Amino acid sequence: MADAIRAQADAQAKAAALRIEYDSLKDYKNLVDGLLTSLEESPAQHGKLSHGTLPAGVLGTGFPEADALFKSYNTVHAELQKLSKGLADQIEALGIAILTGGKGFGDVDEETRRRMAAIAKDARENYVRKRDPYADKTGGVPNTPSVNGGAKKGAVI
């Protein structure tokens, strides 16, 4: 009986930790989305700059710094959009993991399995090892769930 109570308490503690991580990810995504909105609504928005807010030639001709500024803006905007999408996917995956944590991935419906596999596939495709401060420096591949629904112990989704 005591072992069952300890196991239940341990499971509840793990679920609470997942919930905190889930909430933290949601807060971070809201911050990223706010940055995107600020960029898109600002006078520096690419469409406004390229459609006459700053007419061509005003800064002079042969001014490569202006082109570099436009390229930098586009790079920042594109990376923020990728980050926002990645965070949304991770939040969704973590939410699914929290909901299915007690019953295991084997009892999850096929649509949810496919969605989890799609999220994992996108995460693998967008993973940039050199940007990962926790990457295994020995060259090992991070654990990932398999597409058929089985997940390795300690899998990263």
Entry keywords:
single chain, mainly alpha
End-to-end separation in angstroms reads 34 Å
Percentage of residues in DSSP E strands? under 5%
Major sheet: none
Percent helix range: 55-70%
- Tell the overall outline: elongated
Number of helices: 4
- What is the helix/strand order? HHHH
Which class do the helix and strand fractions yield?
Answer: mainly alpha
Please tell me the overall pLDDT: 73
- Note the quaternary state here: single chain
The number of E-state strands comes to 0
How would you describe what is shown here?
The chain is built from four helices and no strands. The protein has 157 residues and is mainly alpha-helical. It has a domain at 2-102. Mean pLDDT is 73; it is low at 50-56 and 146-157.
What is the topology?
Layout: H1 2-41, H2 46-53, H3 64-100, H4 110-126
Helix pairs in contact: 1-3, 3-4
Task: Describe the structure in brief.
The protein is mainly alpha-helical. The protein has helices spanning 2-41, 46-53, 64-100, 110-126. Helix 1 packs antiparallel against helix 3 (64-100) and helix 3 packs antiparallel against helix 4.
